[in-house]
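CDP-diacylglycerol-glycerol-3-phosphate 3-phosphatidyltransferase structure dump, as promised
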Amino acid sequence: MEGNSSYGTSWADQWDYGPDPHHDSYNKKSNTNNSSSTAKYKQKVGEGFGKTKAVASTGFKKVKEGTSVGFHWIKDKYQKTTQKH
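structure tokens r here:
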């Protein structure tokens, strides 16, 4: 199990002999129309976040309601089996 050790080399370290890429070249794009582009993406991300938040809220409410119903069902079954006749 030596290969699975977190202290050993990773798969990429073992098989990738090339140098690691530098990400500086990606950040050197021109800044023309960059602010309008950024605003557009911020708006889309904001809209997506709002939708995600609404879906998550609805899902949480459904889980909460289902859990509550489940606990009441278990409680009723338990009380029926423990009642003395």
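The chain has a mean pLDDT of 77.
lmk if u need the other ones
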